[in-house]
Model the fold of this input.
Amino acid sequence: MVLKSDVYPIVSGDDVVRVRQVARQWATELKFSLVDQTKLVTATSELARNTLEHGKGGRMKAELVENGSRKGVRLAFEDNGPGIPNIELALRDGYTTGGGLGLGLSGSKRLVNEFEIKSEAGQGTTVTITRWK
Amino acid sequence: MDRIPILKMGDCLLVTIQVDMHDQLAVSLQEDLTAQIAKHATRGVLIDISSLEIVDSFIGRMLANIAAMSRVLDAQTVLTGMQPAVAITLVELGMSLPGIKTALNVERGMELLRGYIQKDGELQESDGSEE
Amino acid sequence: MSSFYEVIRKNESSILAGWLTELASSTRRSDLMGDAELKQQAGELLRLFTAASETSSDPKSDAFLSTREYLKDIAKSRMEQGFTAAETVLFVLSLKQPVFNVLRDQLKADSGKLVTEIWAVGNLLDRLAVLTVEHAIEFRDQVINRQQEEMLELSTPVVKLWDGVLALPLIGTLDSARTQVVMESLLSAIVETNSQIAIIDITGVPTVDTLVAQHLIKTITAARLMGADCYLSGIRPAIAQTIVHLGIDLVDVQTKAKLADAFALALTRLGKTIVNAKMLGKTTSKFEEA
Done:
């Protein structure tokens, strides 16, 4: 169930900073522990940067979600860029296309509870992460 | 665009990163530091991140780059004050920043730097290749 | 739309009386709740239920919002008072009997309608009862979680051995959750006490699996990033074997068989040494004088 939802553009370096702050605010609102907040905001930073640089710009959809008795923050990073042709390869540690994907994807996956990625060559990319309290 | 101030303390440079940096600022810092190290023949660089609440892979790589570039220019780098939550997250991300010396705070960091610089000097003397 | 609400509305006070009688016999628990409070709770719930039933028979509709809120409140307060989840939900279900009694009385001429209304009100009350028990259980889960957190915190003490040296004696089996809490409290302690060396002693840990070993290594790596060193002590032979079998690489980590040895090493690293006071001519023992 979605309790709150908002969308933020990611088209510049300042936007990356801004969505980091948004993630921080929403995590604080749910009273996440400091470590969990830091993990979420860091994952946000990685993925937002990917959206900007690899995806050529896009947006972050933020949702405050509820599942039974637990609440969480769900962030979806969407772009209409070149897409990722081989997701499995991209998720391997240390892999980089030179476009800067590097540790971003595989690392972020470890920082969150749920991680989903949808992408096809030429079709853009959507990465959805969720961190529960 | 603002830049992060670099303080000169004797033959060392001190940088305190306090703001949530956007990528451009991080790149400028790298460039500024490299220029300053070369200009002053710096022997030690101390980067204090005790106020930094987020270090992602980009910042992590920047720090590693600064350390590597300093080494090439014959300067030692020490990173001080990393917050526990940041350390835990970096490790989880897979970045352990090998080859970067660390210290709990600026004071210890300076002691560490002094130690390295002195040791370097002693080694050079006993080499007989200097002076 | 059913018309049981009209019957209930017209007979509210006798239904309430009947309900209280019903409650008195089944799950009274007068040790937990006084008569006045019980009467007040029953009266309020009946009032809300009746008002809501006037416009809807769907417990999920807006009409039943106040009823749902009230049920959530009493579920929580009853759990706090010490009622079981079953006792809490029986409070709601026991309303059925007095309502059936009144319906049977009022509609005995029309058995078809009687059956329809009994089913409608029974169904409604059942669904509200389910809602109540869900809240009761949710509340119970919250309490358990909180207690678990407190237990975790209590069982991970970090001890200061000397200026700049911390020890973390781990005792008992380590699971993933506990090891994470341990990691965080050690790292905070390092900052708070400005300690350069932390000794993690696992003498009291019977087994270590891959996950726990990984957590320990992550802790040590994180401490290093912060500027502190970690030593691992008290590794039993069995655990040493496990570590090797699991292919875990401890090459970067300083280990010592005993906590005492690790402590001695730590002091040396910090440039400190222990000297016999007698040798420095400092003694106040009266045995010496003789």
About this structure: The mean pLDDT of chain B is 87. Residues 11 and 41 of chain B are 8 Å apart (CA to CA). Helices of chain B lie at 23-40, 57-72, 84-93, 106-127.
